[in-house]
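Duplicate of earlier report; LysR family transcriptional regulator input re-posted below.
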Amino acid sequence: MDIKHMQYFVEVVNQKGMTNASKSLYIAQPTISKAIKDLEEELDIVLFDRSKRQLVLTDAGRIFYQKCKEILTLYKDLPKEINSLLGLETGHISIGLSAVMNMNKFIHILGEFHQKYPDVTYNLVENGGKMIETQLINDEIDIGITTLPVDQTIFHSIPLYQEELKLIVNPEHHLAKYDEIDMHMLKDEDFILFNEDFYLNDKIIETAKNSGFVPNTISKISQWNFIENLLNAHLGVSILPENIVSMLDQNFKNIKINNSSMRWELGVIWKKDKYLSYATRQWIDFLKARL
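Output:
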């Protein structure tokens, strides 16, 4: 069985037809048709239901398609696996970072790892949790640090830390006199929230709805350090993780919210069934040992 024939078959399925597959592969359509026929004869199965107007996989075809993808992935990653077996302690790791995480703690661990593996390089990308998951699925990054839980059918994960979410107000705000509040007390407030790429946004809105109101959002941001300016300008209130609160101007008042939903957990995630380089696997093991 020729690996190229398997590549042709997979591309036909992905492109939903031989014409598109031939254009994608820059190969004549008769060549692809013959490759599919050769596969069917060799396996003694029918891969496509040709009674339909469009190419539709048979039951056997669906199974063969999944196995072909696994084999092609192994074939593509074989040189990397060989390098790993040789114990090469070099490489590059692309990491997606939550914009609302304890960056100092992460950088400290990264520094320790660099001392042990000085030839490994990094690409650090800061984003919201939803974008990080998308980048992992699309193989644009190797590891992500984001909110847990995640879909366990798609990602592996290890927890990093949990923390409370606190209400942050200007010291002149009328709520600044409180040390604790209930969520429903915020129904008439203007909210400064992160944008829709952040799970923190979803958590705050869901908790507010469960408390009987929809937050009046007057500003959406992607960088937490903008919040200081907005709070100073009396534009509204915000809800932030404790680690971010500790980095804000100490003049702001942080207030406990009496609601069990006002906690969250961050963790390290990576896509299942994806080849991880030796350097990436070492980084994950290094993290596990320090958590």
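The chain is about 40% helix and 25% strand.

Merging into the original ticket.
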